[in-house]
Design brief:
alpha/beta, five-stranded mixed beta sheet, 74% helix, elongated
């Protein structure tokens, strides 16, 4: 806009100069045209043309600026909306991350608790016993088992399962030795690994011997006893690495089970108990049916006896009816008899 004003001012000055020059040249009528006047006129026309071009360029520039402003405003609005959406999404993700962090923190606390449990022998035993007890109590009724059962030799077994109609109970031990497995996970090198495996083998054999000596009592507990291992992974490692040790345990009447296998054992025992109860009920049903048949026989005898009484009564009734008929006949004949008048006294001659 300032450039247009400058050009307009220049055009006015040039026009004024031309007008002044024309007035000074007017008295000389016969003088020849001054070439400078043509030059000035041409310059004026050029300036006017440049002015028109500048005005058009200015209008185009103004339109472009307005369009740029509109586009910039739209772009800024879109950018603001996109930024707001992005910030909202970031907030949601941060919330999710915060929740995940809280879960990780809680899980870390649980892992640390498990580490403390498995690092302490007494706590490990309590942890294994809790798993075993939860499996038993979830599937059996309280009259079918006993925790911390005291045997006749004074020893206390972790769990004793009762079987119907059998005096001997099944002994279950949950104090599996974990120390060797913990050491085996930490050691490095073949020699240290072999030493840890020897410790595991010795610990298991000693524990099998303890179970066999403490809990296998003739007439009081069943053969075999059960050694409960609280980890399926540990059980699989036993089978893969120590098959001979498990074989010796079975020979000593001790069976090693994992949580899943122990659950199958409990389910099988429940099936046997259910069959035993069905057999008991079948015996009771047979006894009741026998008593019912005896009652039916007695009823038949009594009905027969009653029938004889009825037959006798019927004969007596028939005899009574015959006698009644005879009496009625005699009464009728008596009623029909005509009696003669009585005779007077005879005269003496």
């Amino acid at each position: 806009m300032e450039l247009g004003l400058i050009i307009l001012a220049v055009a006015v000055v040039v026009a004024a100069a031309i007008f002044a020059f024309g007035r000074r040249a007017a008295p000389v009528a016969s003088a020849a045209p001054d070439p400078r006047l043509d030059t000035v006129l041409q310059g004026q026309a050029t300036i006017a043309e440049q002015f028109r071009n500048t005005t058009a360029a200015q209008a185009a520039l103004t339109a472009q600026i307005d369009a740029l402003k509109e586009k910039l405003g739209t772009s800024l609005a879109d950018s603001a909306q996109t930024t707001a959406t992005t910030f909202a999404s970031i907030g949601e993700r941060l919330s999710v991350i915060d929740q995940a962090q809280q879960g990780i923190t809680a899980l870390s606390g649980q892992v640390m608790t498990l580490e403390r449990i498995f690092s302490d022998k007494q706590q490990r035993g309590a942890f294994a016993q809790d798993i075993m007890e939860s499996i038993v109590s979830d599937h059996m009724s309280p009259d079918q088992y006993e925790f911390q059962a005291k045997l006749s030799n004074g020893k206390i077994v972790d769990c004793a399962i009762r079987i119907p109609n059998v005096a001997a109970r099944i002994a279950i031990d949950s104090k599996f030795p974990h120390e060797g497995f913990e050491e085996l996970r930490k050691v490095e090198g073949d020699d240290a690994r072999k030493a840890a495996m020897v410790q595991i083998r010795n610990d298991i054999q000693k524990h099998v011997k303890d179970i066999s000596e403490k809990y296998l009592i003739s007439g009081e507990t069943q053969n075999p006893a059960i050694m409960f291992v609280p980890s399926d992974a540990m059980y699989m490692e036993l089978h893969a690495t120590f098959p001979e040790t498990l074989k010796r345990a079975r020979q000593a009447q001790v069976v090693v089970v994992s949580p899943h296998i122990f659950m199958l054992v409990v389910t099988t025992l429940l099936g046997l108990m259910r069959d035993a109860r069905m057999r008991e009920q079948a015996d009771l049903i047979r006894k009741e049916v026998g008593a019912l048949l005896n009652d039916v026989r007695l009823l038949g005898d009594r009905v027969e006896k009653l029938q004889r009484h009825f037959n006798q009564t019927e004969g007596d009734l028939k005899d009574i009816l015959v006698s009644t008929a005879k009496i009625a006949g005699r009464a009728e004949r008596i009623e029909k008899v005509e009696l003669a008048p009585p005779e007077g006294p005879k005269e003496l001659g």
